[in-house]
Design goal:
Bound molecules: zinc ion
Number of helices: 14
Mean pLDDT: 92
Strand content: 15-25%
CATH topology of the largest domain: TIM Barrel
Radius of gyration: 21 Å
Number of strands: 18
Structural class: alpha/beta
Number of domains: 2
CATH class of the largest domain: Alpha Beta
Length: about 425
């Protein structure tokens, strides 16, 4: 199917904004992108044309850190590791996963990188979406996280010790079809009980072994790391992305910039933590963990300070929320990461690029994340000027339409004439 979207503000996914531009989609790809200087062909040439006056069209949003598997963590549960419906059948978990994927897509996120779940459901979902069996965001999946025996999220991960075991498990997961390897046991966590959040887990040699093995197969590596020796092991070991980095400091940021290590800051996680704190809803384990660190003299930078450190050193940051990682960070609310990126010093266009063009490149979706001739037509339309305020996507009415692979998969007001025509198209 072929159609045009005309008279629309276009953000290209990196830095360019075109006012009153028009775009043509043919099949799953973008076949024309023109600014106002080039008039679209007159109506009546047989190609349906939809005028979107005042709206903004941009690449579908990308969340570089989700846990779709199992949907949201049960409200009131302590954390992802220990309480994610451990006793549930994997069939029911799969349906929850699909529901979370649909919800994520409807909120404008046409791709996610999923960083550990259960039973390789994320890998299977990725294949099911790619094969057109189910609708959902394109998924880059990490399968099961790797951790040390008794390490971070050991309840949900594969426990491996020593370079040989790390290598073997990486090979096993690649065989199963993962796009990413998640090294979970690099440092402890902030909300789960157990080991010290800043203590290193995998050794530098273990990280190196995993990275070497993954990279040899063209698979990238994400590391859960907050700070201290663990984050340095991850950076020096050659991982591609650092997840969270809550205790990022000048030393680690400097090395990340030098090595090209990307930060996925999961700022929405912090936002939701503080909202829950005000309402007295933060689980005791998480409160104790933060108190313990404060008592020991570890000062956690605020999100604003953390992003200032990253920017000062030139660390590349892409948008990732940790949706599904705990009960506070819910699927479908992913656009809060854009709110937080802006709040912590990113311009609207920088925030949008972190969730589109840059995220696509980092996650490994080179045909997506751009409004560009030849790119896959994963697109989102908002009635607002998102180039002046990227936070509009967090509004209830922030999404007007979502297009996936050229197909209109969601419109906000299905009753509107435009929506009916687009959906029928
Ligand atoms: Zn996570």
């Amino acid at each position: 199917m072929r159609y045009r979207l005309t008279d629309v503000r276009v953000f290209d996914g990196l830095e360019r904004v075109m006012e009153r531009a028009w775009v043509e989609v043919d099949g799953e790809r973008i076949t024309v992108v023109e600014d106002a200087a080039a008039q679209p062909p007159p109506a009546g040439d047989g190609v349906p044309s939809y005028a979107l006056e005042g709206a903004t069209l941009l690449p579908g949003l990308i969340d570089a850190h989700t846990h779709l598997v199992g949907g949201d963590v049960v409200a009131g549960a302590q954390d992802y590791a220990s309480s994610r419906r451990l006793a549930e059948s994997s069939g029911l978990t799969a349906y929850r996963t699909l529901a979370a994927a649909h919800h994520t897509l409807r909120r404008g996120f046409t791709a996610v990188r999923d960083l550990t779940g259960r039973d390789y459901l994320d890998v299977d979902l990725a294949h099911a979406v790619d094969a057109g069996i189910v609708s959902g965001p394109t998924v880059r999946a990490a399968g099961l996280g790797l951790t040390i025996t008794g390490g971070h999220v050991h309840q949900r991960c594969v426990e491996v010790d020593g370079e040989d075991e790390v290598r073997k498990e990486v090979r096993r997961q690649i065989k199963r079809g993962v796009h990413w390897i998640k090294l979970m046991g690099v440092t402890g966590g902030m909300s789960s009980a157990g080991r010290h959040p800043l203590a290193a887990q995998f050794t530098l040699a273990e990280v190196r072994a995993g990275v070497e093995e993954a990279h040899r197969a063209g698979v990238k590596v994400a590391a859960h790391a907050h700070g201290g020796e663990g984050i340095m092991n991850a950076i020096e070991g050659g991982v591609d992305t650092i997840e969270h980095g809550l205790f990022l400091d000048d030393r680690s940021a400097e090395r990340m910039a030098e090595r090209g290590t990307v930060l996925v800051a999961t700022l929405m996680n912090e936002m939701k933590y503080h909202e829950a704190l005000e309402r007295g809803l933060v689980p005791d384990t998480a409160l104790r963990q933060r108190q313990r660190l404060a008592d020991e003299g570890f000062v956690m930078p605020s999100p604003e300070e953390r992003m200032a450190i990253a920017r000062r050193h030139g660390v590349r940051v892409v948008a990732g929320t940790d949706a599904g990682g705990n009960a506070m960070v819910r699927h479908g609310e992913n656009a809060n990461e854009l709110v937080m990126l802006q709040r912590t010093g990113f311009s609207p266009l920088e925030a949008l690029a972190a969730a589109t063009g840059h995220a696509a490149e980092v996650v490994g979706l080179p045909d997506r994340g751009r409004v560009l001739l030849g790119a896959i037509a994963d697109l989102v339309v908002t009635a607002f000027d998102a180039t002046r305020d990227a936070a509009v996507f967090a509004r209830e009415d922030g999404i007007a339409a979502v297009i996936k692979g050229g197909r209109v998969v969601h419109v906000a007001r299905a009753s509107s004439p435009l929506a009916q025509r687009m959906l029928g198209a």
